[in-house]
Amino acid sequence: MKLDNPVVPKGRDRCKDRPGYIPTLIGLGLVLAAGSASASFQTFSGGLSEEAAWRSAVGTFALESFESYPDGTAIQSLPALGIRFDELAGGGYPQAYVFGTTPYGPTHLGNFPNGINWVNQWNDIVVYPLPGATLTALAYWNGDGQADTLVARAYDSSDNLLGTIGAFHDTFAGFISSVPVAKMVFDGITGDGWNHLDGLQTSAVSGQGGAVPEPPTVLMLLSGALGLACYRCKYVRL
């Protein structure tokens, strides 16, 4: 006795809507391509004109001149800038330090809360975004009188290096990253090891939340979803 064949796709109709794969693959491919193509780390360095160019490119930013802090005040966070500081390797937190004049006054942020001694010499200043803040741009002036460059390195959430900037003494440096920054490290191996910066500026504002996909990326995602919705196979009994 011949058994009925089970329900299987008919030869010529098998996955007749297979072209639905096309927009799906195109959409997903474009999303991946856009992600890699859009990643960038733009740097600025120099004087007031470069600072103005950075500000123009960033749009919205917050500034801390440290002039409202008494000399020697330890600073653990700057909520208006959406950032906090890690404890220094030698103990304590970066402190307000009166040294000399930059475009933002004589009070700077130094890496030696224990005074000018060996305890904090060569210590890095490490910065993290506050919870709910997204850091994509940062800038500063090197207020140190040493004839050296204060280098800052930006890392993503996987601790991959995104880029490096550096400000020679009494000059400006800044960056804009298309990838959110999870950690900034101001290199303590600079000059005599007791370093200080001024005019710290960021685009990270508390409560800003995570990054929002750009409109082209959203459209690509919708394209991929549409392809999935359109895909279906019709099965018939032989």
From the spread of the alpha carbons, the general shape counts as globular
- Distance from first to last alpha carbon: 17 Å
Can you summarize the main beta sheet?
A: 7 strands, antiparallel
Average of the residue pLDDT scores? 80
CATH architectural category of the domain at 39-202? Sandwich
Topology:
Blueprint: H1 21-38, E1 41-46, H2 48-58, E2 62-64, E3 77-78, E4 83-85, E5 95-102, E6 105-110, E7 125-129, E8 135-142, E9 149-155, E10 161-168, E11 172-181, E12 183-186, E13 196-202, H3 215-230
Antiparallel strand pairs: 1-11, 2-13, 3-4, 4-7, 5-6, 6-13, 7-12, 8-11, 8-13, 9-10, 9-12
Compact overview of the structure:
The chain has three helices and 13 strands, in the order H-E-H-E-E-E-E-E-E-E-E-E-E-E-E-H. It has helices at residues 21-38, 48-58, 215-230, and strands at 41-46, 62-64, 77-78, 83-85, 95-102, 105-110, 125-129, 135-142, 149-155, 161-168, 172-181, 183-186, 196-202. Strands 1, 2, 5, 6, 8, 11 and 13 form a seven-stranded antiparallel sheet that branches.
Describe this structure in words.
This protein is α+β, with helices and mostly antiparallel strands and 238 residues long. It has a domain at 39-202: Jelly Rolls (Sandwich). 19% of the residues lie in helices and 32% in strands. The chain has helices at 21-38, 48-58, 215-230; strands at 41-46, 62-64, 77-78, 83-85, 95-102, 105-110, 125-129, 135-142, 149-155, 161-168, 172-181, 183-186, 196-202. The strands form two sheets. Strands 1, 2, 5, 6, 8, 11 and 13 form a seven-stranded antiparallel beta sheet that branches. Strand 3 (77-78) and strand 4 (83-85) form a beta hairpin. Helix 1 packs antiparallel against helix 3 (215-230). The protein is globular. The model is unreliable at 8-18, 21-37 and 208-238 (pLDDT under 50).
